[in-house]
Amino acid sequence: MSSPSPPLLPTYSPHGSPVDVDERASPIHNLLKPSPRGSPSWVEKHGKNMPLSRKEKEDDPISTKPSRGINLRAATIIPIWIALSSTVIIYNKYLYSKEHLNFPYPIFITSYHLGCAALGTRVLRLTTNLMDGLDEVPMTREVYVKRIIPIGILFSGSLILSNSAYLTLSVSFIQMLKAFTPVSIVLISAIFKIQALNPKLLATVVLISVGCALSAYGELHFELLGFLFQTSAVVFESSRLVMIQVLLQGLKMDPLVSLHYYAPVCSIINACFLPFTEGLKPFREIPRIGLFIMSTNALAAFGLNVAAVFLISAAGGLTLTLAGVFKDILLITASVVFFGSPVTLVQVFGYSLALSGLMIYKNAAAKK
Fold first, then answer.
1. Per the database record, which ranges form the Sugar phosphate transporter domain (predicted)?
2. pTM score, two decimals?
3. Nearest-5° angle of CA 194, CA 262, CA 175?
4. pLDDT by residue for the chain (368 residues), tens digit each?
């Protein structure tokens, strides 16, 4: 599974779902503690609309407001999120690479990750209060069919295409191409008349576009198929984020709640492509790869989604932006160190331009 990025709009989760920061600031030490609010005994005693007492508010992790220790929590969770995000991407590249594990089956891996995520969110639902956000989502069959499934289809396409790009492109080049995502979002929003273009926004689009073009021009091992996969993945992901803004207005879904709904449908969609693409080959190769690699790979991907919940709670928009930029730079450096991916001065200059445009775009979005 591709690594979820920090939100393009600070009020959105790494999966693009609206998040109420206050409601997501539950203390870590309360994770395994059942929430009194909403339980059958509490409702029977107080009624559904009975306000919480002061003591109940202090004990209830959902109603708890961010404490003064939030900076410490941010300082803890941001490195964990960066480490997990980088691990997932490097791990997948290591898995796909012919020079390493040589397991070139991205459709199987994305289906496997999503299947594990669907199972994992349901286990968390039964054992922790991390999934309490499900109680706040008025999910019906109509909402699921008309809103979740269309977004799930775009999410599935984004994951398949982006993971397929790792078969031929370097991690560093892919990270540079991902900087084009805000441009794609702006253009799609303008086409469907969701967001009007203005001179400042156009200047930002041009800056990012020029930077990405220079990054592509400076790539020494350019592969057209991989480039098309990644650019198509950017279009799918941008369309997904735009669709979320249109279809999921009013639904408060943190990353884990989103994953709970999206993972099953995406896993099924991806699995439908398996017979026509990779067939039974990945299943025959699993014994060679081993249970340890397969399980830790899925665990890292799922752990990233859990970390994203606390990241949204602990960090503000600017902090998320800087964390994302630092993570991308770290990934490019890791790609050079671990995989020997060459990075030219033209690419460094181009990516610097793109990052500058990205910072301007996100800061402008944060002020809205």
1. 74-361
2. 0.73
3. 70
4. 444 433 333 333 333 333 333 333 333 333 333 444 444 444 454 554 454 444 444 444 333 333 333 334 677 888 888 899 889 999 999 999 988 899 999 999 999 999 999 999 999 999 988 888 888 888 888 888 988 899 899 999 999 999 999 999 888 888 888 888 888 888 888 888 887 778 888 888 888 889 888 888 888 888 999 999 999 999 999 898 888 888 777 777 878 888 899 999 999 999 999 999 999 999 999 999 999 999 999 999 999 888 877 777 666 666 676 777 788 888 888 888 888 888 889 988 988 888 888 888 777 666 66
Rg (CA), the chain: 21
Cβ neighbour number for residue 142 with a 10 Å cutoff:
8
Residues 269 and 153 sit within 8 Å (Cβ to Cβ): yes
In this structure, the dihedral spanned by the alpha carbons of residues 10, 110, 310 and 74, taken in order and rounded to 10 degrees, is -70
Contact 91, 297 (CB under 8 A): yes
Measure Cα distances from 118 to 122, 170, 245 in Å.
7, 29, 23
From CA 348, how far away is CA 9, in angstroms rounded?
26
Residue 359, burial from CB neighbour count under 10 angstroms (0-12, 13-18, 19+): middle
Q: Which residues contact 129 (CB under 8 A, 6 or more apart)?
A: 26, 30, 31, 32, 33, 34, 35, 61, 62
Instruction: Label residue 280 exposed, middle or buried (CB < 10 Å: 0-12, 13-18, 19+).
Output: exposed
Q: Which amino acid is at 83?
A: A
DSSP at 7 = P
The CA distance from 285 to 288, in Å, is 5
- The three state secondary structure string of 224-270 is HHHHHHHHHHHHHHHHHHHHHHHHCCCCCCCHHHHHHHHHHHHHHHH
Residue 250 gets the label, from left (phi > 0), alpha (psi -120 to 50) or beta, of left
